[in-house]
Amino acid sequence: MDAPLGRLFAISRSCAYMTSFNSALTKSFEIMASVRDNKEKSRFELDVGDELAFANYRLTPSAVVITHTETPRNLRGRGIASDLVKGALDLIRSDGRNVVAGCSFVAVYLRRHPEYADLVA
What we know:
This protein is of the alpha+beta class. It has helices at about 5-35, 80-95, 105-110; strands at about 35-40, 45-50, 50-60, 65-70, 100.
């Protein structure tokens, strides 16, 4: 491969990587923006079409205890619950609070995502 073609290939790969990175970053912001804290019902909610996924919680003086997550049966297996928990954790972080995993799904999510270890109470 001659030098100009090699540089073009490297630039092309770099652009593909950045496009992928930017897409993931955009999705992260979209998730956080679409997950909302329904304080009246003490739950985080995520609309998916006409369906609603949610994570119930209770507040303690020092933390948010996520007690249950629920995704509509027909949406399971698509990463919706993970998107919900990620958005909820981002909201909890932005509020300066800690989290307690009161349900197994959140406990597993936190084990698989060490970037949230600082939130664990």
